[in-house]
Amino acid sequence: MGERFPFGIPDGWYVVAASDELRPGRVLARRYFDRELAIYRSESGVVSIIDAFCPHMGAHLGKVGQVRGETLRCSFHGFVYDGAGTCVATAYDGPPPAKARLQRWEVREQNGLILTYFDSQGRAPEWEVPVLDEAGWNRIRWKRFAIDTHPQETTENSVDFGHFTELHGFIDGSVLRDVQTSGPSLQTSYRAWRPYGLPNRKPIYKFPVEYHVKVWGLGFSQVDVEIGLFGINARVFVLPVPIDDEHIDLILGVSTETKFGPIAPLLRRIAHTILCQEVGQDLDIWNYKAFIQLPALAKGDGPVATYRAWARQFYSDGQRS
Fold first, then answer.
1. Would you identify the CATH topology of the domain 141-314?
2. Is 294 exposed, middle or buried (0-12, 13-18, 19+ CB in 10 A)?
3. Backbone Cα Rg of the chain
4. Pick from 268, 270, 194: which is nearest to 228 by CA?
């Protein structure tokens, strides 16, 4: 456990790559969950995620693995692994060693994302992240941030109403729907007025924006943004992936509706730029803050206590938020 966030890595689904990053025959090396992983796509398009170190002599398959049809070959000594992590061949005569096996991770590929499931006890997943209907929506635009924080901290922002006005400069925020929890999911909705004007001057214009938050576990948040005045809707994805218990990759994504035709990609780019700017305002908070077990909450903070009680279910090692 880290000193700043004393609750370990939470169980749940996490996005470890975008589908676009992994063409057939390619291998990615990723360090997540305090583990080294090799992610590869077979020639037929099947994605597999396995522990990275070859059990023969320890080569990193994310760095030296070579896709051969539906298998992954270690270029160090020619050991070949199938999608289940079983060694099916070597460069030598005789059968592969029985101990030559790699842990295989659960894989879901949906909506242009590659997800895997982490469980500190090695249990199979009991819930799924819903697949979105992509009809009428353009492809998601992505950016990845490396941050010294924990998934519980970034996901907590979704219910921390106070920071929207103080840190991000929104005006007159209000709750449209109280936080509702059901198993691994959490939902809430709120409205805030976005001001526009010259820096350090009184805003000359403002318009309302509605945010409909949908969270599945501590690794997958989707926020449906509605700007009714302009008829613009966007899907915002906030996807923290734990590198270890004090560091994450934060993947931000935006998709907008295609109904605007040729300008739809421009609207997506603008929305993504605004999102990244807002997250930029959060970076110094996340990079340096510590978790306070019993915060001195005030009226207006939002349902932080409700969120933290819900988050406890994702820790199975005795540590609790």
1. Naphthalene 1,2-dioxygenase Alpha Subunit; Chain A, domain 1 (3.90.380)
2. exposed
3. 22
4. 194
Q: State pLDDT tens for residues 128-144.
A: 999 999 999 999 999 99
Tokens in use for 83?
């999608």
Give strand pairing partners of 213. 188, 223
* Region(s) of the chain under CATH 2.102.10.10: 17-118
- With cut-offs at 50, 70 and 90, classify the pLDDT of residue 205: confident
Q: In what order do the strands lie in the sheet with 108-110?
A: 12-18, 113-118, 108-110
Vertex 64: Cα angle to 118 and 75 (nearest 5): 125
> Alpha-carbon distance 161 to 177, whole Å?
13
**How many Cα atoms sit within 13 Å of 202 on the Cβ side?**
0
